[in-house]
């Protein structure tokens, strides 16, 4: 179990190592390395998701390890409260950034082994603190440093606790 201690409150996340072992291990390694501490939720879209894990409060992107294989084809769905890997248009381009679904987002699920069909790999779920996620979702956003949907007041992951 992972606990993100944010300036909005705590978010507890349980990872699914059985279904998505590569993704869960990758995320856990970033947590163990202290990578997420001091990063922000830099993309917040009401009724969709809150995204974090890649930028500092000054909107400086952090360097990451290599990308991982997309395990969206393993069957986990992008439902309310699941955590999934963010990526570019390339299916196997996820590294550190993640998002938490604030509603069911079936259109993000895997449906074919094509660029358009790969989907986004859900690899765990929020087991406590969904009210914190919904509070983040309500933040006022706009364009900051050339990025859309950025909260005007930084929402910071201040610490990460790993409980095994």
TrEMBL record:
A Pfam family assignment: Pro_isomerase
Key words of the record: Isomerase, Rotamase
Domain PPIase cyclophilin-type: 1-162
Family annotation (InterPro entries): Cyclophilin-like_dom_sf, Cyclophilin-type_PPIase, Cyclophilin-type_PPIase_CS, Cyclophilin-type_PPIase_dom, E_coli_cyclophilin_A-like
EC number assigned by the record: 5.2.1.8
Lineage top rank: taxon: Bacteria
Top enzyme class: isomerase
Record-level Gene Ontology MF annotations: isomerase activity
UniProt xrefs under Gene3D superfamilies: Cyclophilin-like
Catalytic activity: [protein]-peptidylproline (omega=180) = [protein]-peptidylproline (omega=0)
Main function: PPIases accelerate the folding of proteins. It catalyzes the cis-trans isomerization of proline imidic peptide bonds in oligopeptides.
Family: Belongs to the cyclophilin-type PPIase family.
Name of the molecule in the record: Peptidyl-prolyl cis-trans isomerase
Higher taxonomy: Bacteria, Pseudomonadati, Pseudomonadota, Gammaproteobacteria, Alteromonadales
């Amino acid at each position: 179990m992972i606990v993100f201690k944010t300036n909005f409150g705590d978010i507890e996340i349980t990872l699914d190592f059985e279904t998505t072992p590569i993704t869960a291990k990758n995320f856990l390694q970033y947590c163990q390395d202290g990578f997420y501490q001091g990063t922000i939720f830099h993309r917040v879209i009401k009724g969709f998701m809150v995204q974090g894990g890649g930028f500092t409060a000054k909107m400086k992107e952090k360097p990451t390890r290599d990308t991982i294989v997309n395990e969206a084809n393993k069957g986990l769905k992008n439902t309310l409260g699941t955590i999934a890997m963010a990526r570019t248009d390339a299916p196997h381009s996820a590294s550190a950034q993640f998002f938490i679904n604030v509603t069911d987002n079936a259109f993000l699920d895997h449906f074919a082994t094509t660029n358009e069909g790969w989907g986004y790999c859900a690899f765990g779920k929020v087991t406590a603190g969904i009210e914190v996620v919904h509070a983040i979702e309500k933040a006022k956003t706009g364009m900051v440093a050339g990025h859309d949907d950025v909260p005007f007041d930084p929402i910071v992951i201040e610490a990460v606790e790993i409980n095994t």
